[in-house]
Amino acid sequence: MMVEHAEPVVTPEVTTILNDLISKTQDILDEGNKAKSISRLEDFINKSDLTDDKVEGLTDVEEAINEYRDVEKSGMTPEEYQEEKASMFEAIQDAVNALEVIAEEEVEPRLESVVDYDRRYTLEELREMARREGLSPSGSKKGIAARLIARGVK
After folding, report:
1. 55 vs 67, 88, 152, CA distance in Å?
2. pTM > 0.85
3. Is the pLDDT of residue 18 over 60?
4. What does the alpha-carbon distance between residue 50 and residue 24 come to, in Å, rounded to a whole number?
5. Per the CB 3.0–4.6 Å rule, which of 42, 93, 112, 117 could disulfide with 145?
6. How far, in Å, CA of 149 to CA of 96, rounded?
7. What residue spans define the domains of the chain?
8. Per-residue pLDDT tens over the stretch 39-84
9. 153: buried, middle or exposed (CB in 10 Å: 19+, 13-18, 0-12)?
10. pLDDT value at position 4?
């Protein structure tokens, strides 16, 4: 029995790590040195585990950075230019503050985990574990193992 696994899995442990990374991302932005802090922000995001499939809003951050960089001086007074840049920097800060870890979805267990359970436990042991968890004890070893793994039993 082949069991599909959707990638990536955002487990509670990964969520904690990603939330810490998001917090560090928020700390990088410095209004006193906007250009340098934007470069540091981009470097940090590129070197971290913050990816679109795990963190919602990264595209918004990238777009806000691009809009900041696209502001041109032509046709503006120095004050208007500074106001526009300040407004675009604020948009970057808002986008960073809105970053959010994508919630863990119910995911089918990985094949290797099912195979590991199949090797590690007898059919009777798996049935007993299933009963203790309130799951159906009927079916093949791999089927029972898949239900136990989906329930989070180790």
Report:
1. 21, 22, 23
2. no
3. yes
4. 11
5. 117
6. 35
7. 12-101, 111-151
8. 888 888 888 767 777 778 888 989 999 999 999 988 999 999 999 9
9. middle
10. 39
| Euclidean distance between CA atoms 130 and 29, whole angstroms | 50
Fill in the DSSP letter of residue 99. Answer: -
Q: Tell me how far the alpha carbon of residue 21 is from its chain's centroid.
A: 10
Alpha helices in 71-122 (DSSP H): 78-97, 111-120
- Alpha carbon of 154 to those of 59, 76, 120, 136, 147: distances in Å? 36, 63, 11, 17, 11
Q: Write out pLDDT tens, residues 103-136.
A: 655 344 454 577 788 788 899 998 999 899 888 8
Q: How do 100-101 and 55-56 pair as beta strands?
A: antiparallel
What lies within 8 Å, CB to CB, of 137 at 6+ separation is: 126, 127, 128, 130, 131, 144
Classify residue 57 by burial, with Cβ atoms within 10 Å: 0-12, 13-18, 19+. buried
